[in-house]
Amino acid sequence: MSKFSKGKKRKDPAISTAALPDIVFMLLFFFMVTTVFKEKESKKLEIDKVAIKETIDLEKNIKASYFWIGRVPGKVDDFRVQLDDDLINDYSEIKDYLTKLRKNPEYSQVWDSRFFNVFKVDKKTEMRIVRKVHDELKEAEAFKVVYSVNREK
Amino acid sequence: MAKREVEEINAGSMADIAFLLLIFFLITTTMNLPQVHEERLPQKSDVEFLLNERNVLQIMANKNDKIGIEGEFAEITDIQSAVKKFYQHKDGTPNQPSYIEVTRKICEDTLESLENALNVYPDAPLFKIEQDAWTRRLDACVAFGSGFQTLPNNATVSIQLDNSTTYVTYMSVLDQIMQGLNSLRDSLCQDRFGVSFEKLNDKVESDKQKISAIRQVYPKKIMKEKNRSVQ
Hints:
- The complex is a heterodimer of chains A (153) and B (231).
- Chain A is α/β, with parallel strands linked by helices and 153 residues long.
- Chain A is 29% helix and 22% strand.
- Chain A has helices at residues 20-34, 92-103, 105-108, 127-139, and strands at residues 51-52, 56-57, 63-71, 79-83, 86-87, 115-121, 144-148, 150-151.
- Chain A is elongated and about 95 Å long.
- The N and C termini of chain A lie far apart (79 Å).
- The mean pLDDT of chain A is 80.
- Chain B is α/β, with parallel strands linked by helices and 231 residues long.
- Chain B folds into two domains: 46-97 and 155-231, no CATH class; 100-150.
- The longest helix of chain B is centred in the last third of the chain and has 27 residues, at 167-193.
């Protein structure tokens, strides 16, 4: 009997994989929490956003309609308004759109409290366009407006 | 002699480490909410507001994005100090609004007479607005533990823009006004409550009262020129 048996190979025990799910879940949670959904961007218009110092956080869990005002790509001074998904040809479409939206009980219940009109406007836009949109909003009795801006440090 | 096996590594504590990391990231990660400037559009009305000239701080921007304050050309950064002066000055300064005195007694008396008035005219909207305003002022008096001075109801910062003024100018004007206003609010907050205004959290009930009390002293009042005429 020899103490050093060379012929027989010793079996390594299998490494426990019990902790693997923990790691996976940890990663999952991490990404779930840190992911910020990219702000809605307009695909139809080019918008150079304004940066200001005094800003507030946009409230969570809101109902909103999105207004984009910016340049049509490739054209120099063609400013257009996009409401949610579509470009607007005539300003009166805004009132019709919002009136229709308000018929939906999901919106009508929160119309005066948690319904916001989110504006994303290009720096060089003339105020006449913004004003025309505001006038339509007043007609539709949607008074809450927020301007989406970048925060200047 | 028995064959010695390599002991299995105990992985039980792995989960602990994982949770520790998870909690660390959970706490340190901040979510960036979209940054906005909020504005409330005025009700559509045909009523022309009659305002006293001295109760209005007029800010203008022309089609070349040049700024004017009270009818004189100025730099955009001058707005901040003009706003501060408008909200906080020695009572009786010419061309600046005079203050109204708010104390607990005055609030209670006014509310009582408004109550009586509402009994007679239950649908008068103006009385209801006044009632809301004075109720908030009373709350502010309670939060401060004393009375305060504030601008009269019809005092307002007015912005007059040309149709060709660019949006960036409008935003900068609003930003300057808010910077002036917030620095006043901050110093008042330091003075009365010993904390900075920004640190107050509107999710906490006691902070919420402080915020609304401070807003009663320095309310955000911005009016976009359209339906008003100056006396």
